[in-house]
Description:
Order of helices and strands: HHEHEHEEHEHHEHHHE
Oligomer: single chain
Radius of gyration: 18 Å
Number of domains: 1
CATH superfamily: Vaccinia Virus protein VP39
Number of helices: 10
CATH topology: Rossmann fold
Strand order of the largest sheet: 3-2-1-4-5-7-6
Distance between the termini: 33 Å
CATH class: Alpha Beta
CATH architecture: 3-Layer(aba) Sandwich
Largest sheet: 7 strands, mixed
Amino acid sequence: MSWSAAQYVKFEEERTRPVRDLVQRIPNHGVERAADIGCGPGNSTEVLRERYLDAAIVGIDSSPDMIDAARKRLPHVDFKIADIAGWDETGFDVILANAVIQWIPDHEALLPALIGRLAPGGSLAVQTPDNLDEPSHRLMREVAAHGPWAGKLAGAAEARAERKGADWYFRLLRTHAPRVDIWRTTYFHPLAGGRAIVEWVKGTGLRPFLDPLDASEREAYLARYETAIAAAYPAEPDGTVLLPFPRLFFVATR
């Protein structure tokens, strides 16, 4: 998929709030090395830097555009273009995975592998959107299935990993880490109309649905999707819409 740092940071404050909440729940032990995997444009890495001023931090992302933005933002942090599935560095006191594991399959293998990259006492801190049943994402699938683009988008929904519940993650993590802190939070974001919701998801969840389409198909798909969004998220008298955004968090300490 193609990723745009500029599109992603249009809602930077809203996207960064969950990672701030997550990092504050990491046990407060000596942190000398930390990694931000799937670092995006560096907003989550900046949260790590603020918490661990003296730590050596590395950020990785598969998108050159994201890494370029991250390097401009934090020129003294070591950023690398790398795929998480093939990443093999070890010995970290903290590994942060903010809003990224939903794009990586086979969590049953992925998460133990990441815990294995921690130093003794280290923590894996994860936040993942838990919004596949929300209208914003359900409507992506419905519009994809009922338009002239249906053939092109037949597999678009499969870009995200299979959704698992908190109990499933708890059982998996407990076999590899003695301490697991897991919770779910729904954020409610006031946005400037339904079009703002579309702009938000264009930076993330809509990517698998937009990338296969040509320019005219993309325009038509977005128009139909925006109409459906406007109906699903009624506006307040001043035009504001409230976007509920559930997210799942966990911190597994080795």
